[in-house]
Task: structure prediction
Amino acid sequence: MRNLKFIISYKGTAYNGYQSQPGGNTIQDTVEKVLRSLLNQSVTINGCSRTDAGVHAIEFVFNVKYDEVLSSIGTDGLIRGMNGLLPSDISVVGCEYVSDAFHARFDAKGKEYLYIVDCSRVRNVFSQGLALSYPYELNIEKMTEAAEIIKGKHDFAAFCKAEAKEHLKSTVRTVYDIRIEKEGGFIRFYISGDGFLHNMVRIIVGTLIFVSEGKRSLDDVKSAVKDGKRDMAGKTLEPCGLYLNKVFY
Amino acid sequence: MRNLKFIISYKGTAYNGYQSQPGGNTIQDTVEKVLRSLLNQSVTINGCSRTDAGVHAIEFVFNVKYDEVLSSIGTDGLIRGMNGLLPSDISVVGCEYVSDAFHARFDAKGKEYLYIVDCSRVRNVFSQGLALSYPYELNIEKMTEAAEIIKGKHDFAAFCKAEAKEHLKSTVRTVYDIRIEKEGGFIRFYISGDGFLHNMVRIIVGTLIFVSEGKRSLDDVKSAVKDGKRDMAGKTLEPCGLYLNKVFY
Result:
């Protein structure tokens, strides 16, 4: 058996998220189908995380174990073959052999997400599905102050989808950094951490926007981070602005 | 009767071009349908030009005459109403009353097109449909030399779709300027002129790319511009990279 590590990029608009589903039409199902035909065997890929329907990935990592007796294709052949067979909204960026022990999810030390907001006053037809359309100004200074409160190790229960919490042993996570960058009419939020709860990035950015709008105060954000009260945080933003940007190993 | 000038932006991916067709699903059909319901009357819009299927517009201009007795809606109401009713890939950028004499096509003094090439080595899933994917390097210096030959007043017969030529009195046009800009992995070609033949921009950029690849020499380009021989120019590039950027009045 050999173990391969892949990096792929995908536009999630047309998919029901990453994770395999009985109905298919997920990133995992699509990739496994192509790998099955190239490796001449049934395979299951281990993704670094799940992404929701409509969420994108710039660098998503997965690993896959396969029996090399059934397939002699090398990494270059795999990259070319996959990019030839995959639909145009999924692309293989890299592929390398790794030790048997490597697991894309269990070995991940952290991740960085990117959330893009398009502040164009007029609906920008070219960013639809690729950014949240928010046709107003955002107060970067106020959002940066709120981001300072969110950074660090906290119980992020207030920043988690309600149904997801029940299955978790702990909702304590560490946010390493939140960078807010303005470029033209776009604002980009880069958020890195050791792990993320379901919807955590979309709620963090939603909270920063509520702070910009005056709907939440800095004290509300402190309380959200301290007491875990969901209503002290902001709303869950649309998935279309969210990108898994990097996985750290 | 009043005369309104509109500026719209659209992503052409899902449409059979600008110009109305019996089958519908064109930009013109879609816009006229929405205007009809807001103005309470049947209207025909005069577009500044035609764009092919898959071609985009950043600022497309049209005018429309309507009977104000049947409709009391103002320009602000029209912008809001249209942006509410139009699909998300068409957006109204501006709207103003103009003199009765104004005609979006006949009064246009010139236009600027933009052609975007994505030179990412790995297929960029986020630019699909919005740029030509060309995963190689382009020689900007050589292309700039060729662009200098193309600029100016010439018989552009070599840069025109064959079937389109038969209906034209003249294929002489003036290219005011060709600007080539590199930004990240993207190369942007801005081409302005007093008028453009069918496929002219896509063939000009195709010729520049052939020059970069060494498939055409500068002498070939001179000959294309002088003798109108189609095979001295380059190939017609895909529509997805093309944008109508601006119309001059």
User: Anything to note?
Assistant: DSSP finds six helices and ten strands in chain A. The radius of gyration of chain A is 19 Å. The longest helix of chain A spans residues 200-213. Residues 21 and 221 of chain A are 36 Å apart (CA to CA).
